[in-house]
Amino acid sequence: MTLPRQMLAANTEWADETVAREPHFFQALSRGQNPLVLWIGCSDSRVPAETITLCQPGDLFVHRNIANLFPPDDDNCSSVLEYAVRVLKVGHVIVCGHYGCGGVRAALLPPSPELPHVNRRIAPLRALAHAHHDELDAQPSDDARLNRLAELNVLEQVQRLRDTDIVRESQPAPLVHGWIFSLDDGRIKVVASGYPGDAQRDPGN
Ligand SMILES: [Zn+2]
Question: For the segment 15-25, what is each residue's pLDDT rounded down to a tens digit?
């Protein structure tokens, strides 16, 4: 069986199992969504938001792109934030990066001629790497450099989100959190807590 066919068969199985376990599940789902969290993550297939946090359909409003970026002039990202904050009134925005991120790695390598869109997209990451080149150059290995830049990238996106009018003007403003996922052990580390009292304990801030 090809993978798409397998996926459709799995979907039927999932829908049947779900309704057997929770007879009103889809009735509730079709009434509307009320997610409490906007998740901004990387498109990487190994970092599926719901799976790694045991969330269910309806729990997370999700935006994913290469290297979990939030460029302020990007209507795609901004429309997701706007809708999540102003209409869905999420209480939390979580930026979740991950170690070993290919998008972050690409920003440390020369631009690839066959990937013009990716090159343009990750240009701010190259600028971020340049701004922190002293700290990055001091890392003991390429992997350490990549992983530190992945953390700095999460911190940068958290700051950009906190600086948006959408977040600042919202009453109450959603809390913006920065997380990073490890492919090695499946654990998430908090690199920027959204809880006000935790701010001074953020590493790298
Ligand atoms: Zn990634």
Answer: 999 999 999 99
φ/ψ of residue 64, rounded to 5: -130, 140
- Tracing tokens 């690199």 back to the chain, one arrives at 191
The pLDDT tens digits of the residues spanning 162-172 come to 999 999 999 99
Domains in the chain and their CATH numbers?
A: 1-32 (no CATH), 33-194 (3.40.1050.10)
C-alpha 202 – ligand 1 centre gap (Å) = 22
Distance from the alpha carbon of residue 44 to the mean position of ligand 1, in angstroms: 5
Q: Which residue has the tokens 């240009």?
A: 123
User: Known catalytic residue: 24?
Assistant: no
**Per-residue confidence at 196, pLDDT binned at 50, 70, 90?**
confident
The whole-number average pLDDT for the span 63-71 is 98
